[in-house]
Amino acid sequence: MQVIENSKIKEKMYIEKLSNGLTIIIIPKKKLTKKYITWGVNFGSIDNKFILGDSKDITEIPDGVAHYLEHKMFEQRSGINALDTLTNLGVDANAYTTNTYTTYLYECTDNFYEALDEFMDYVQNPYYTSENIQKERGIIEQEISMYDDEPGQALYMNLMKLLYHNNPINIDIAGTKESIAKIDENVLYTIYNNFYVPENMVIVACGDFEPNELLENIKRRITLKPSNNKITRVYKEEPDSIVDKKAERQMEISAPVFMIGYKDKPFSENMVQKDLALEILGEIIIGKSSKLFKRLYDEGLITTPLGFSYEYGRTFAHFLIQGYSEEPERVIDEIKNEIEFFKARGITDEDFERVKKKLYGEYVKDFNDPEVIAAGVLADYFNNINTFSFFEEFDCIRKEDLLDVLNSLFLEEKKAISIVKGNDKNVE
Amino acid sequence: MADYRYELKQGIKAHLIKTDIFKTNLITIILTTPLKRENVTKNALIPFLLKRGSKNFPTNEDISKRTDELYGTSLNCGVDKVGDNQILKFVAESIDNNYTLNGEDLIKDVIDLLIDVTFNPYMENGKFKETALDTEKAHLEDLINSKIDNKDIYAYNKCLENMYEFTGFGLYKYGYLQDLEKLSLEEISEYYFELLKTCKIDIFISGNFDENHVKEILNQNEILKKLNEREPEYNVADPSTEVVQKVDNPKKIQEKLDVNQGKLVIGYNILDKQPNSRDIGIVCNCILGDGASSMLFQNVREKAGLAYTVKSGFIKPKNIIMINSGIEIQNYDKALELIKEQVENIKKGKFSDKDITNAKTYIVSGIKNIEAEQDTEVIFYMGQELSSKYFGINQHITSINSVTKEQIVEFAKSLQMNTIYFLTGLENN
Question: Which of A106, B181, B230, B365 is a Cys-bridge partner for A93, taking CB atoms 3.0 to 4.6 Å apart?
Fold first, then answer.
């Protein structure tokens, strides 16, 4: 196995690519009672158009297929749901679907290898029938309803619709009640047979493991054969421009929430550096120790810190800023002015060093919990990133790198604003 | 990892949880005081006021810069309810000394900072700063108002409020707007000093430290030295002494909001008085509605497809079980019947020995996991501290495994529906 080591956090990553194409990554954590394993498939909600083999036709699938398939993966020919079997072993099993990938996982203290039998069996053996698909519809409809009532979800989806013309990131991961009604067993089998193939998958495990022992145990349970199917994913071309500047809607909430998005070009050369630069910039400009936060807080314009994040996947990248305020427009304006101020004035050494130290501490903290570690390594893997490289980037990043990002990403013409406000109380 | 506890002074305890599996130290200071309507809002406000500045770090900006310097130590505070107590919690998480870049004694700086923030506030003429009070009142007001934003939690709290008729455990942990509005600077400042004199104080330190070093840090801390000894005022959280009123007809509460999904929450009293009722309750609740194998999940979600979320929770200090679910509004009757049927089935003993074994395996796995998370371990030992019943992880596992089917059925038979709360949409009449 290939071993990557990081001396700062004193951790190792063992990596092996099996002959069938499946990648295994193991991060051993001595003495920890908790073990976590996650099996990711490079197939998410944005993968809704593709060409199979040498066909001339584009296959288009209904919105919400990746998520529906994730729900149905647990169904077994025996009639016993894999989730029940795993739960009965005392392990905490789950799965989730993102825009770009789907992953199956469990966490446990005991019975790791007993659970591995079931885990690796169910992910490798689909059993979809029109009956079991029909049965799931009500459950997923309730999941969609639940998200529909969450202000954060509405805020985010509206922003994606403002930022993206064609990218399916502007569609809910779960789809809609209408779109999921079109999903049948044929669609699910098509996806499974073409995308749930070893070279499109990775297993990441973290816990008190002896790497070779775990590797052998995984190998022994592998039945998936390498696939010769050629798949071409089709993404409609996405313009650099945004769709519109602003969207607003009303919901049953107590105070307005807003989200600002800056659209970026998907995937530049050094994503790790860019990601780190944006974390540092975010802290300096709008973080808890920033002048802006103090000012807005003292004026009573905000009562909780502003949140920010840089999100990226194979076809999209954007920087988001989120907050609560009775006067969202004023806060949005203040943020804009602050960004312009930093563009004009640059960044002080003091701020740069202080925030770097803070982020270093936060990265170290992330390496406590097997769940956080494995889920992070998985997400990074699908973005072609070695998780440890963040620590190396710390030593090389310069203030100039921050300024480059500041000047190239934060452009008014690439900015959109989504606001969700409470219902008018005077209307009965 | 055992909880090594000792009294620093009467009413003030230190808990040292030594463990070498984390890269972090977790320092938690907990102030415990009885849950009362006249104090609940004040208690909720105090952590926010304290975070505005200490004598050594007078503004929140100073505190933030300090935590940045301390390698991004996180400093969080908040309030919670444990039985009939309100707890004020101050938590600092920092990296362990071994991971600092220049070999700093970070744990000392972090303990000192957290103590400074909790017990040594920045004051002018013996009062909090007026401007800080104004902004923090606005902050708390936002928080109280925002209880409506998460409909699951909102519905859950509304059910509890109605169960306890807006007293004791039914109080909202962040308090009430009408009490907040009239709170003056004098009142809150005086209250803080009073609270400090009388509350129970627990200081938890979890991490890979040298015990003597930490003891010395605590012993030498000037601010701790000034705190008085006390006969702490709090309610021992003991379900066996809980007096439960018998309910002949469950309360039915319906509330309309602009929502797509209905939230059905049902609260049950437990009248059971078996000696190991607590452990029986954990197993019974697991079979009923905790996890994917539970009766609620299997029947309401998997078989009937009525819900995505359906689960039950056992609130040990209050001896109640709460069931909550998110359902299609027009399915109210169907879902309610099906949920009731699951409770009836458990009362009739309609579950197998395998169900019990599975539930125990699931629970034991959770117990073993306590030591794998620093904050979970602190909560585990704090729960013991407030119930004055101390036991280790292994003892807990043994007593869970000793629960029998007869005990579960007897426990379940004592379940009594207290309140049915339904959050429904506007258009539905």
Answer: A106
pLDDT recorded at residue B75 = 96
Rounded Cα–Cα distance for residues A27 and A7 (Å): 14
From the CB of residue B124, how many other CB atoms can be counted at a distance below 10 Å? 11
- pLDDT at residue A428 is higher than 50: no
In terms of Cα–Cα distance, which of A21, A28, A23, A24 is closest to A5? A28
Q: Average pLDDT of chain A? A: 94
The predicted pLDDT at position B1 comes to 65
State the ipTM, two decimals: 0.86
Q: Is the pLDDT of residue B428 over 60?
A: no
Helix (H/G/I), strand (E/B), else coil: A320: strand
Interface of B with A in 317-336 (CB under 8 A): 326-328
Domain boundaries, given as residue ranges, for chain B: 4-226, 240-424
**Domain segments of chain A as ranges:** 2-233, 246-422
Q: What pLDDT score does A427 carry? A: 41
A269, with CB counted inside 10 A (0-12, 13-18, 19+), is exposed
User: Rounded to whole angstroms, what are the CA distances from A219 to A202, A214, A225, A306, B322?
Assistant: 13, 9, 12, 46, 44
Type of residue numbered B109: D
pLDDT band at B429 (very low <50, low <70, confident <90, very high): very low
- The answer to whether A297 contacts chain B (CB < 8 Å) is yes
Q: B418 exposed, middle or buried (CB, 10 Å; 0-12, 13-18, 19+)?
A: buried
- Asked if A110 lies within 8 A of B260 by C-beta distance, the reply is no
pLDDT tens-digit series, residues A278-294: 999 999 999 998 999 99
**Residues with Cβ < 8 Å from B5, sequence gap 6 or more?**
B13, B14, B15, B16, B381, B385
Distance (Å) from the C-alpha of residue B160 to the closest C-alpha of chain A? Answer: 21
Q: What's residue A426's pLDDT?
A: 44
Instruction: List the one residue out of B100, B75, B78 whose CA is nearest residue B87.
Output: B78
Please check whether residue B330 is in contact with residue B337, taking contact to mean a CB–CB distance below 8 angstroms: no
Task: Write the pLDDT tens digit of every residue in A234-274.
Answer: 999 999 999 999 999 999 899 899 999 999 998 777 899 99
Residues 153-212 of A with CB under 8 A from B: none
> Is A246-422 the same fold as A2-233?
yes
Pairing state between β A257-264 and A92-97: unpaired
Q: Are B57 and B116 in contact (CB under 8 A)?
A: yes
Instruction: Fold for B240-424, please state it.
Output: Cytochrome Bc1 Complex; Chain A, domain 1 (3.30.830)
pLDDT in tens, A301-320: 998 999 999 999 999 999 99
* pLDDT score at A8: 87
From residue B185, alpha-carbon distances to A142, B26, B221, B337, B358 in Å are 47, 32, 29, 51, 55
- Measured CA to CA in angstroms, residue A165 lies from A162, A238, A239, A266 at distances of 8, 6, 7, 14
Contact status of A288 with chain B (Cβ, < 8 Å): yes
The whole-angstrom separation of Cα B139 and Cα B77 is 14
Q: Do B4-226 and B240-424 have matching folds?
A: yes
pLDDT at A425 over 70: no
Which pLDDT score, from 0 to 100, does residue B381 have? 95
Mean pLDDT, range B312-337, rounded to an integer: 96
Give A88's contacts in chain B (Cβ within 8 Å): 293, 358, 361-362
Q: Which of A96, A83, A88 minimizes the C-alpha distance to B302?
A: A83
CATH for B4-226, options being 3.30.200.20, 3.30.565.10, 3.90.226.10, 3.30.830.10: 3.30.830.10
Q: What residues of chain A lie within 8 A of the CB of B20, using their CB? A: 31
| Domain A2-233 architecture | 2-Layer Sandwich (3.30)
CATH class, range A246-422: alpha beta
Buried b (16+ CB within 10 A) or exposed e, A152-169: ebbbbbbbbbbbbeebbb
